[in-house]
Structures are given as C-alpha cells and as structure tokens.
Design goal:
Keywords: Oxidoreductase. It comes from Nocardioides kongjuensis. Strands 4, 5, 6, 10, 11, 12, 13, 14 and 15 form a nine-stranded mixed beta sheet that branches. The protein has a six-stranded mixed beta sheet with strand order 8-2-1-9-17-16, with helices on one face. It has a two-stranded antiparallel sheet with strand order 3-7. The protein has about 325 residues and is an alpha/beta fold. It has two domains: about 180 residues, FAD/NAD(P)-binding domain; about 140 residues, 2-Layer Sandwich (D-Amino Acid Oxidase, Chain A, domain 2). The protein is built from nine helices and 17 strands. Bound molecules: glycine. Glycine binds next to loops.
Length: about 325
C-alpha cells in the first residue's frame, strides 16, 4: 500500500520503518522532523516505574513494547541500556509512595525488589541518604535523539502528503489535525540535560517531599533530569520555576548535581488523552489511521504502536483497548 505517515516523531518514524520493512511504499511527512516531544524525551523504557494505580493496562502494553525494543535497537544500531530502574523515596512519606507502587507491581507479578537505606546506597553509591527504594531490574533506556536520527536514515521523508496515498497514518503528537484535535491535549514537560563526572549508574525515579523527579544516565557522563508536568495553553518554554523545582528535587537525591554542567533545557507538550491510553487504529474516516496520544509513553510504546498499525493495515485487526473510536461519540 502507498502510506503517508504524518509526523516524524519517534512514533511516526517507527511506524514508517515497520511499514517499509513489511513492503509498503511509505513516506513520512513533517516540516520539523524529530523536533517535537521526542526531542525532549529522556528515553525511559520504564513500564513499571511510570505506572500508577488505575494504569494497569499501560503496564501490560509497556511490558509488551519493552520486549520489542532489543530487536529495534539492534536493527537501528543504537545503544539500549538495560541497567534497570531504581525507585527511591527521599523521606518517610516518599517511601510510602514507593512501597505502594511496589505493592501494585507485585500484585501484577512484575519483578520488584524492595531495598532499605543501605540497599539503595549499595545499588547507587552516588545517591544521598534516602529513606529507601525499590529496584526494577528489567527496565531500560535509550537516547531518543539517537533513535530518531537512525530512523530518519531509514525512511523516506517528504515535505507534503502525496495526493495518491491510499492510507494516511496521523502521528502528530499533541497537535492533531481536525477533526481529531480535541482527542489530545498538551501536558507541558520541562526537562534539563547535564554532564557529570559522577552520574548514577541506572535510571533513578524518585519522590522528594512529594515532588516526582527522574535522572536518566546515558553511560558517558550525560544525564537527563526530568520532568515537570503541567497542562498549559501557552507555547512550551523552560521556566525558571520549573528548572528550580527539578534541580532542587534532583539535588536532594544526587549531591553530585552541584558539580554537573547544565547543558540544555527543553520544553515540549506531551499528548494526553482523556483516559490516559494511546489512540492506535481507525480514525473514523476511511483511509486514515491514528497513532497518537502516547502521553508519557511515546518512546516506550513506539515499537508496539508500529506493530499494531502495521498489523491493522495488513489484517484489519484493532486492539480494542487502544481503538480511537472509543473516545469518539457515535463513531463505532
Ligand atoms: N516518561 C517521562 C515523562 O513523560 O516525563
């Protein structure tokens, strides 16, 4: 089939690569390739660390997609860091959050190992004294910019959709075209990039006085520190207050932050849906398929989304949990 993919973020590019691999004639259309949320993303492949009560479906989807990442990373020649995630609670109240999350994961049979103060210290000697934590050994991370660069080398990029395209896949993140624009809304994320001679070894997802923060090391001194989360109508910018909150929370966990070079601040909107689940499948308009609304999970869910979109085009199959028509009144 002749397929145009609108949007060259990590979701659109991964969809484009998968469709091309399956023999479709694919063009990816974007005036600013890889410049949206994928440019800001830390690259956490963390289905468990990023899940919360009521999001169990996301855990299932995330675990399935994490399982597809090793093959995708190998195909693209990008590094996949499989060092796990350390959840940490700075004080006793924060540790309760970690313990509730660990209990949720345990109930779903997900591997999680609770650690006391000393256990956290030996897992991550660079961290400050914290109340405790939990290790999620199966989690990983990638550098989304490296992934997008590798994908851009493998897809055909065009400036405009083709008039003779048989199918259009809409993967334009937080700004969907009409009539779907109301299905997603932007949730601002501000994120900082640092360079350190004493980085953590693995992804650290922490609570500090009720404030959520994460550190994602690349293994070469680069560390990504994220992220704020606010619904906003204004254009995304890094605010002084956002940076201050991130730095203060991260410093409480990781004292070496003081000596780190502050390299970059980035802000982008995450594409949120009403029920927190992506929109992958029929759009309600013939020949148009959505691959959108991935909110906090675009990098993690990209390979699963690519597989689902390609399966849908090849066989007509739709995952009912992700079917976009669930959010459109009267569209089924
Ligand atoms: N998945 C990380 C974030 O959205 O901040």
């Amino acid at each position: 089939m002749r397929v145009d993919v609108l949007g060259a973020g990590i979701v659109g590019l991964t969809v484009g690569e998968e469709l091309a691999r399956r023999g479709h004639d694919v063009a990816v259309v974007d005036p600013q390739p890889a410049g949206g949320a994928s440019y800001a993303a830390a690259g956490m492949l963390c289905p468990a660390a990023e899940v919360w009560h009521g999001e169990e479906e996301l855990l299932r989807l995330g675990v399935a997609s994490l399982g597809l990442w090793p093959a995708l990373a190998a195909r693209l020649g990008v590094a996949l860091r499989r060092s796990g995630t350390l959840l940490v609670g700075y004080d006793a109240g924060d540790l309760q959050q970690v313990e509730r999350q660990a209990a949720l994961l345990h109930r779903h049979g997900h591997p999680v190992e609770l650690l006391g103060r000393a256990g956290v210290r030996s897992a991550e000697p660079t961290l400050a004294r914290v109340a405790g934590g939990a290790l999620l050994p199966s989690e990983a991370s990638v550098d989304p910019r490296a992934v997008c660069d590798a994908l851009l080398d493998r897809v055909v990029l065009r400036g405009a959709p083709r008039p003779d395209a048989e199918v259009t896949v809409v993967a334009t993140g937080s700004s969907l075209p009409e009539p779907w624009s109301g299905l997603v809304s932007g949730v601002r994320g501000e994120i900082l990039r640092l360079r350190s001679d004493d980085p953590p070894r693995r992804t650290v997802r922490g609570w500090v006085g009720g404030e959520a923060v994460y550190l994602v090391p690349r293994g070469d001194g680069r560390v990504v520190l994220g992220a704020t989360s606010e619904a906003h109508a204004a254009p995304p910018v890094v605010t002084a207050g956002g940076a201050l909150r991130l730095l203060a929370a991260a410093r409480a966990l990781w004292p070496a932050l003081d000596r780190a070079e502050l390299v970059e601040g980035t802000a982008r909107d995450r594409p949120a849906t009403v029920d927190g689940l992506p929109l992958v499948g029929p759009s309600g308009v013939d020949g148009v398929v959505l691959a959108a609304g991935h909110y906090r999970h675009g990098v993690l869910l990209a390979p699963l989304t690519a597989q689902l979109v390609a399966d849908h085009l090849d066989t007509g199959r739709v995952d009912p949990v992700l079917d976009p028509r669930r959010t459109m009144q009267g569209a089924r």
